[in-house]
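name: query_chain
kind: protein
chains: 1
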Amino acid sequence: MLILETLIFSCLLPGTKFSDTGTGKTISLKPIGQEVALFFKLDDDSDTRKACLGITGKCCDCLVYFADVKKSVFCLAELKGKNADQAAKQIINTYDHLSQTLTHSKNALSSHIAKCPECASHANACPHCKNTYSGIAWKAIIHQKGASPNKLNQTLVQELVTRFGKHGEGYDISHKEDIGYLLRK
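structure:
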């Protein structure tokens, strides 16, 4: 099953927010204009969702898909009380597994395009073969309560920068409920 099908059928949340009952924290995004925001719960009490997405080990709480007319973003979110290092490890693990699953999906799709008679008859892939994952940027947010979030150990900072880009642009540690400030950058 493709990753988006798994997300939509087993992880999609109603509305444009995610609340963690364990920590009492919430992240949200109010779409403006033609923006689209979808929230997917990844971490639950069973391993079913994680297994369907190819994730082993600890994963982050939520995946947010954000799109506007210029870009598409997958944002991994972890809502933590105090342990920012653990949150970063969960986000990194989730990213590593999901990006690998997406790569396998892209490879299967590329193989299909090469064999599809409809695709072979024209320059572009047929509507069923278009690669929906190309061009999606990745971001991450660790949501903590309080005005000064915990500092991360430098090894984890480097790992986040490698995967998502600079602090404040590709990833952030924040107490803000509205994550639009990060996704719109």
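note: Strands lie at 17-20, 25-28, 36-41, 62-67, 72-79, 136-143, 171-174.
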